[in-house]
Amino acid sequence: MKLPDKKTWALKALAKSIAYADAGVSRTSDPAQVGRFDAFFGLSLKDPFCAAEAFFCVAVSLAELIGDAMDMETLESLKPIIAAHFLTPTASCGEILADAKVRGVWLSVDAIGDNQDILPGWWVLYNWHGGDAPEHVGMVEHDQGDVIADVEANTSSASNANGGTCAHKDRDWSCVLGFVRTY
Prior knowledge:
With 183 residues, this protein is an alpha+beta fold. It has one domain. 37% of the residues lie in helices and 20% in strands. A six-stranded antiparallel sheet has the order 1-6-2-3-4-5. A hairpin with a 3-residue loop joins strand 3 and strand 4 (147-155). The longest helix is centred in the N-terminal third of the chain and has 17 residues, at 6-22. It is globular.
């Protein structure tokens, strides 16, 4: 099987996530779709699903790019390929961070220089309480200078990290831990 280049793959996953946000997918509006995100990791509908949705988008994108089926069994079978060539699929933001560091694709907010571009399709990890443990993940749409425009799952105006909705967000840099360079 010929795999897509990482940029194509990451941008396709971003497009999938944008489609869920544009459609207003949430626990309330589309519990069946959120259930598919959750089922990818054996989660319940009440569990936080920001990372589950991101990896679901990665799996669906890979299936489309290689011309494979989209059923859950096929998507599950792609996890080892995703782990070998993208990131290790997990529903844990902490595990995403650890994996990115091991792979050498982590860019901490402290290491970002003046000439560093933050690219669409990269993943951004957040902490809302000033710590160094990631609490949430999104996919970068673009760097707007003062804020990062991204698309996230399991957010809302009421709860940053467990709001149950897929949405576009503009986030202040103060809560950014760093970025996973997906390509």
